[in-house]
Amino acid sequence: MIDAAARREWLAPLLDTALSAGAAIMNIYNAGIDVREKQDSSPVTDADEAAEAIILETLRTFEPALPIVAEESMAAGDGPNSVGRAFWLVDPLDGTKEFINKRTDFTVNIGLVVDGVPVLGVVYAPARNLLFWGDAEDGAFVADVADGQQGEARPVTVRPEPADGLIAVASKSHRTPETDEFLSALPLKDSQSAGSSLKFCLVAEGEADIYPRFGPTMEWDTAAADAVLRAAGGAVLNPDGSLFVYGKPDFRNGYFIARGDAALERFMAS
């Protein structure tokens, strides 16, 4: 089984790989984006495919027996038929719609799941020059990126519940009536919109307190940033308060609520 020592050995090359994938994405972002449709009518670009190729090449050097569930490979019918106790989840370009519209809320996501729990995650926002990572044993961190090079790591932790009201973050492109209903019951100070897995990272670094998602996502959309949030002291829960887990047969997520301070679990459905 994959232990903390193995994860520490893999972290530096994972961070380098995320930076390389981000650089490939930004080259296409700046040169011009050719958009195509996958079989499910969702958009895909050369950037998704280029970034995934870079990531897969690195992951295969770590532990060849570990299954890799990557978005574009799965869409092409080239993913694993099943996974065991440990596997990778990869979204090479989370927030493709943000990318296509030349916004900055898109990320490279690489996550490792063990026994249903994301224990290692790297999230890189190349248009924002921000690199996040987290490990279940070692905590969560963020670093600025300049000229493709990672700067000094800064630890991140969720913040205590604020006395003057919560800051919620919700999907920019996929907000639903159920989301609005959930938010209406919270003691909110402010509600913000963001794209991609950056929503988890905002909670992880104490810029927001809660992120509800009452809409469809896939496991590769969430695992990496979920690992960052859990490493920062937060959690991702089902709406009934039970722990959100990975490794479902179709890799489709149900609804979830990502929270910072544990005190916020009182807002989960009983």
Would you summarize the structure shown here?
By secondary structure, the protein is of the alpha+beta class. Helix content is 31%, strand content 30%.
Architecture overview:
The protein has helices spanning 4-31, 46-62, 71-75, 96-100, 177-184, 198-204, 219-231; strands at 35-37, 43-45, 68-70, 86-94, 107-114, 117-125, 130-135, 139-146, 149-150, 154-156, 166-171, 188-194, 210-213, 217-218, 235-237, 252-253, 256-259. It has 270 residues and is an alpha+beta fold. The chain folds into two domains: 4-156, Fructose-1,6-Bisphosphatase, Chain A, domain 1; 166-267, D-Maltodextrin-Binding Protein, domain 2. Strands 3, 4, 5, 6, 7, 8, 9 and 10 form an eight-stranded mixed beta sheet that branches. Strand 8 (139-146) and strand 9 form a beta hairpin. The protein is globular, with a radius of gyration of 17 Å. The model has no long low-confidence stretch (mean pLDDT 93).
SSE layout:
Blueprint: H1 4-31, E1 35-37, E2 43-45, H2 46-62, E3 68-70, H3 71-75, E4 86-94, H4 96-100, E5 107-114, E6 117-125, E7 130-135, E8 139-146, E9 149-150, E10 154-156, E11 166-171, H5 177-184, E12 188-194, H6 198-204, E13 210-213, E14 217-218, H7 219-231, E15 235-237, E16 252-253, E17 256-259
Parallel strand pairs: 3-4, 11-12
Antiparallel strand pairs: 1-2, 4-5, 5-6, 6-7, 7-8, 8-9, 8-10, 13-17, 14-16, 15-17
Helix pairs in contact: 1-2, 6-7
